[in-house]
Amino acid sequence: MEDKNLLVDDILMFQVIHRVCGPFERYTVAEVLAMLQDSETVADITVVPESEMHAHDTDCDSNQSDDEATGDPNRLPSTLLKVDNMKITADPFFKVRSLFKHLNDINNTIPIAEHVAVDEMMIEYFGRHGCKQFIRGKPIRFGYKIWSLASSSGFVHQMEPYVGSHTHLVETGLGQGPSVVLGLAEKAEVPPGVKFYYDNLFTTLSLVDEMTLRGYDSCGTMRQTQLYNVPYVAPQTFKKTPRGDAEYLVEAEKLIVRWNDNSMVTVVSNMEREFTETEAKRWNKQKRTMDKVRQPKCIQDYNAHMGGVDLHDQFVSCYRVNIRSTKWWWPCFSWALNSAMVNSWCYYRSWKSGQKDLLSFQRLVAQTLLLRHGTKPSRQGRKSSMAVEITDATRFDSANHWPCNTGSRYK
Question: Rounded to an integer, what distance in angstroms lies between the CA atom of residue 2 and that of residue 21?
């Protein structure tokens, strides 16, 4: 009898149990497989894995390897990233370093927004790697940490993976938080006059002084431990004051404000030299209505412009690449594709006032790439150097596609 390779799925297993074992007995999968090997009636059945991703035969008709020949999308990661493993450096992210550099080079061609925020993003990863981080309270708790500089609309201008002492950011001597802010500003070549916003992970009084010297406006929340000699009321006493109360101090071109909301909030800013207040609406549990409370102007500006990095994270999480791999670098690669798509969409909305949502924009990009790939020109006559007809999305993007002088002539 000829050998046969059959996939033992639920239907086949049900039939085997009833034919070999009897209809009234129940067996485990391991017992059924053992009976299959011992039984003479089904000795020609060979058990193979459930998915072809675990059982690829060598392609005998070509010199291609299994990874190059397969069309299974689950094996796609093994064919994408080509890095010479004989040139390993001390950088733990050497495999994807060129990828992040390429993204930053493209993002740096876009003018910096007036309001930018510095925060951290997480790339989900549950495997083993020396750079994997755990951050309590984040939507993604396990993974790689990415320092990011983003506009209020969610466009990321600069990103840098955190790899400990090998992080490619300048060391300022002011601590990790200030070094991240100043390092991202230097790498993105942020011009003076841009307004920075960051949370209490980065904010120190020395950072605000350094931002003032470099011509940047900045505003950030502060931890109580960073207020060394500020003559404020004790925190336990201040928390008992009515909601909306504030106290402030103006010192050395810095405005330090403490405000009582649901909890005590402390903000330091060099954007304002005088304390001003606005109104904000807060929910009153006792009256079950919205009440108006006083709110410092610097805190209102902080709330309006701080969420750019989190907004980018939210957009990336909407339509992730669902191809999975055991490679440690694959989450970084797939996240980079999603981040580039979100950045393109944010730029499309801000520059062209685009009305397409993210899903429609991704479909348009995918259709355009498919049309431009591997299609021969349909028109007759002289052979064109272009692969395909130019799509409408490219023709009408108002990007000024002028010819470039390459220094050579064509006949």
Answer: 24
